[in-house]
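Q: Could you fold this chain for me?
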Amino acid sequence: MVDLIEVEPLNTKVLEDIGMSWHTDADGSAYVSNALVRVSDAEAEAYAEAANALYDMVVEATQAVIDEQRYIELGIPSNLVPMIEDSWDRDDWHIYGRFDLAGGLDGLPIKLIEFNADTPTSLFETAIVQWALLKANGMDESRQFNNLYEMLRQNFKRLLIGEASLDAFERRYDGEAILFSSAPELPEDERTVRFLQEIASAAGYYTDFSYLGEVGFRDRDGVYNSDEQRADYWFKLYPWEDIAADELELMRILEGIQLHGHTRFINPAYTLLFQSKGMLKVLYELYPDSPYLLPASDEPLQGVKQVAKKLFGREGANTQILDADGRILAETDGPYAHHKSVYQGWAEFPGDSAGQRYQAGVFFAWEACALGFRRGGEILDDMSKFVGHVMR
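A: Sure. Below is the predicted structure, expressed as structure tokens.
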């Protein structure tokens, strides 16, 4: 049973004052739980060790996919392959991602569910909201596994200096600018992006924000803000696979910019390999004895309970739980039916007395650096709740 402690919730005015307007779900219920998961030092350390080990495995698996040209298996659009290979070869920096993990509490083993590496959400909730919950309830806000803000600040510096000492940033910085973009009328995306902009500014960059429709792209040159100023880096909270499928002319321009121009992209194109759930199959092929991996295949698994999910599905959409005979136990619909499926062995999630399940989200920025939880039913969907944590 998950060890929970109830606290006074943050009221909507406080949440809106700190910039979180998506605090209430469509059914009128609060998105942020008024319970905190109590986590031991050993449990937090185990989550960090798992994420660090998994990241190393993902890097090795990515190299294998590129070497063996296994893009079709992972659902990668062919027009994105040149950018993937170029960004990988020149080590463009991966700012952050989030590992979704089953287990880790109540004695259950930690298992990788997926890696949200291109456009991960719950960043603002993890870095700010759960800290604010502790502070508002008179608790020691440092009693969390949560160094996300500082690790992101450092990782922005590594855009320029790579793996060199962070002191090198002050010597190397020469006015580089980062343009941040999200789609309009998506308040969660916009607040997340503007939060990242704040962190990049704190790291020392010149920064700006433009909605996606306001951004200018010049073939073989670069990305420009609405004032016609060219950016050295462009962060877009918009999935690479959607750009590749729906914006063919833009993809052509972006490829020219990456190969010949003056703007580099965050997160880089190769993170789509990290993000594809087809990577679960590759990881299991390479590391079948890893304690963190579940059996995975592009064909139904034989004789075991399993989960069928789309290569690029989000928020639990178009997911099925199947029993050992292939019968559907639970399923969700959604907009991702056109993607191929991957089949992954079922893992037990820790639960509470109400039968709700808890999935850990461990953020990775240079290293594992923060923990938060999602709570929901048999399939965690877009109605799942964010649950903060406190160290015992």
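A (continued): Residues 41-68 form the longest helix (28 residues).
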